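Usage

Read records sequentially. Each one opens with the input sequence:
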Amino acid sequence: MSDLHSINEAINKRAGRKLLPSIFVGLGLIALIWLSLAFERVIFAGLVSIALILAIQELSRAFTSVGFVNSFRTLAVAVFAISASTWFAGINGLAVSTAASFTAILLLSLRHGTENFIKRASSTALALLYLPFLGGFIILIARPDNGLAAVMTFLVLIGCNDTFGYLVGVLIGKHRFAPNISPKKSVEGLIGSIIATSVGGALAFHYVLENDYRYGIAAGLMTVFTATCGDLIESAMKRDMSLKDMGTLLPGHGGVLDRIDSAIFSAPAIYIALELVKRFS
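and closes with the structure output:
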């Protein structure tokens, strides 16, 4: 037992996170997502909306700590409006509601005069595009009749990328991938992500979506690229603001934004891939 404890502590130290809580939280989130999609898909849209509101609270708090003025309450209303519009009106609803929300928030900001207007407008634009707009594509993936299968495939792709990149990096990672942005990322971890996500994508497309496995391999490679970009972008933001995590809500993961950073960047790409496969297969 002491040997297992020592191994676990060594992994935690190398990864910078507690492994077991991270696994339990991840499995719990997957179960919650599956239940919502299996029984009533609109509940899934609500869960995504709640996650985005929690994430935008973390982002708003982080921006405020470095002098960017913004209103979390106003942004939260915008997240809810964008999420609801996306579910009921599709991609047109996502585009129109994002544009309308940005315009409305800027107009409301005029009440405070010109002081910090540029900072307020910049942080608002980044927050809206980064979270409810990109995150809205997760809702779009769930809208069709095969929404359960599509979202499960999306989770397989994201899960393979994150999990195997993490495990391979922790176990054998030696060559830093982007040391100035994310010191924990390794070339070996990236290779692990590429192999595992390609295999996971092929299996998910063949057995879950009942489609050509080669589409799954292509989607897997695309997911590795977009998810890695999303992770690096959030890491760059945190390092610029001198933060280790965006929050502490999820044990072993940090904040909500720390958990969904790769997913929100991959969602538009996976949505487009699924639409193309549906149209041309």
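Summary fields computed downstream for this record:
- The chain has a mean pLDDT of 86.
- The chain has nine helices and two strands.
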